Every structure is written in C-alpha cells, then in structure tokens.
Amino acid sequence: MKHPDYNSPAELKQVLDINGFSMQKKFGQNFLINEDARKRLVDALEVGEGIKVWEVGPGLGAMTNTILERGSDLTVFEIDRGFASLISQFFEDYSAKNTFHIVEGDVLKTWKGQFEKAGQPDRFFGNLPYNIAATIIADTIENNVRFERCVFTVQKEVAQRMCAKPGSADYSSFSALCQWAYDVKPLLDLSGGNFWPKPNVDSRAVVFTKKADFPCCKNPALFVKMQRALFSSRRKTVRNNLSQFLKNNDLAVSCLEKAGIDIMKRAEVLSLDELLRLSDVIEGEK
C-alpha cells in the first residue's frame, strides 16, 4: 500500500478519514510533519544495515519509513490498533524480508516480553507521549536494559528534567537515573507547528549515549531505590529521607557522614558522584 505524504496534514487527514480513524489524545498522537527534522532525528540515531531498533509510537510510519530505508531491523510498539493495521500494510515488503515487526499494545506492558523473546536491540527511538516518557525510560534502566544509543522526542519539560544539573529546579530522581545510565544531550527543539495536529506544548529531542563506565556502584538495585527515596520528599533533608529509607536515624547519619555529605542538605543539590558514594557506604554497612 502506498504511503501518504508525511509532510502534508491534508493527506494524513485523508488517510485517517478514509479508514474511519481519529487521533487519540489519550495516546498523545501527533505526527511530525517537518521532513528536515525527521531526517535530523534519524541521523542522530546512527542507524544502518542490520542494526536492531525499537520505535515507540510509529503512528502512520513517517519515521519508520526513514529507519527502514537505511537497512535497520525495526520493531515498532503501537497501542492504536488502527494504526498498527495500516502500517503493517505500508511496510509489508519489509515484513516479508523479516526486517519489520509490530508489537501491538501498551509498550509499558509489552516491552519486557519482546526483550525476552528477541533480545537486546541496539537503538531505542520514539516521539514519546508525556504520560509514558519518564516511565518507559526509567523502567528500562531499572531493569538493567540499556541501549547503545537512544533518540527521544518528548515534551520540553521532560527533556529539561533529563538534562538537569544538581541544584536546578528541574533536577530530580529521574535526572539522576538518566545521567547514571547515559550521557544525555539535547538535540533540537520543535515548536508545536512542526506537528499535526498542532500540540499546545513545545517538544525537545534528546540523545542518550550508553555510558561505558557503569554502574559505578556496588549494588545497582540499592542505588536505584536509595536515590528515589532521597528525592521522595523534596522539602526534607537527606537525613530525614534516608532515615525513613533505612528505618534507622543513627545509621542514616553515620552513612551520610562517611560519604562526606552534609546531613542538612537536600537531595536536589547532590551530585551523581555523591549519590553513588552514599549508595556504596550503605551497601558496606550490610
């Protein structure tokens, strides 16, 4: 089946109307209609012959098409049954060559099964809806699944959290988690006019590059739980939050002192190195 013109809102709308589909706001559906931006995103992903890629939310396949043209082995995760049906027809030639695969359903519920079935992909890509962006990224990292390279387009506020530095208003547990597993860099900003339907928010594309020096701590599972606990009540000191996590105030004070961290500080001013050091001190107390 012939693809629509991915740069034409009128043609995209026609495809939807003919098939009786509507854009689902609950799924965060918006098509990137800027061809140059699509090329820059796929260029940043650094795909090529035989590279295994996961794409979340392909929609009608604008980015999918570009990735497949570059010879990659692509698996897409699509929650909308109508879109999944259409793109299976758009890319049936690639399916026949076994380089295009569709996983239907909510990616938050399906990615682990696909990972167990097909193994580790090299790249992770997607225009991620606000309601799942942080969850899917954190979920993969916490399950010790890291990709060589990721390119995500997300709501600008989410991207700011990914890249935030200690002491800034956007710095959070999510910031620390992303920067623990990856080198995170902004790629480009995309105003609402680059999408159809036009969203009311701006987006930002970010590039994640897998850190070679990882996990830099003795017990990664402990680190994940500890740093989440430290950020759980932002107005409380690290002493208070760590005391609750360890269920022992004296032990919390002792661990913070051994790690060289002021017990009256708040988590949002602690560097990643400080968080990792504290995790190792706690591990040593077991």
From TrEMBL:
InterPro entries reported in the protein's UniProt record: KsgA/Erm (IPR001737), rRNA_Ade_diMease-like_C (IPR023165), rRNA_Ade_Mease_Trfase_CS (IPR020596), rRNA_Ade_methylase_Trfase_N (IPR020598), rRNA_adenine_dimethylase (IPR011530), SAM-dependent_MTases_sf (IPR029063)
Coiled coil feature spans: none
Keywords assigned: Cytoplasm, Methyltransferase, RNA-binding, rRNA processing, S-adenosyl-L-methionine, Transferase
SMART domains given in the database record: rADc
Binding site for S-adenosyl-L-methionine: N30, L32, G57, E78, D106, N127
Superkingdom: Bacteria
Catalysis performed (reactions): adenosine(1518)/adenosine(1519) in 16S rRNA + 4 S-adenosyl-L-methionine = N(6)-dimethyladenosine(1518)/N(6)-dimethyladenosine(1519) in 16S rRNA + 4 S-adenosyl-L-homocysteine + 4 H(+)
EC number assigned by the record: 2.1.1.182
UniProt entry tagged with the keyword Coiled coil: no
Domain Ribosomal RNA adenine methylase transferase N-terminal: 37-212
Cellular localization per UniProt: Cytoplasm
Record keyword rRNA processing present: yes
Gene3D superfamilies xref list: Ribosomal RNA adenine dimethylase-like, domain 2, Vaccinia Virus protein VP39
Cellular-component GO terms for this entry: cytosol
GO molecular function: 16S rRNA (adenine(1518)-N(6)/adenine(1519)-N(6))-dimethyltransferase activity; RNA binding
Pfam entry (one): RrnaAD
Protein role: Specifically dimethylates two adjacent adenosines (A1518 and A1519) in the loop of a conserved hairpin near the 3'-end of 16S rRNA in the 30S particle. May play a critical role in biogenesis of 30S subunits.
Family the entry assigns: Belongs to the class I-like SAM-binding methyltransferase superfamily. rRNA adenine N(6)-methyltransferase family. RsmA subfamily.
HAMAP family assigned to the protein according to its UniProt record, in alphabetical order: 16SrRNA_methyltr_A
Listed name of the protein: Ribosomal RNA small subunit methyltransferase A
UniProt source species: Treponema bryantii
Taxonomic lineage of the native organism: Bacteria, Pseudomonadati, Spirochaetota, Spirochaetia, Spirochaetales
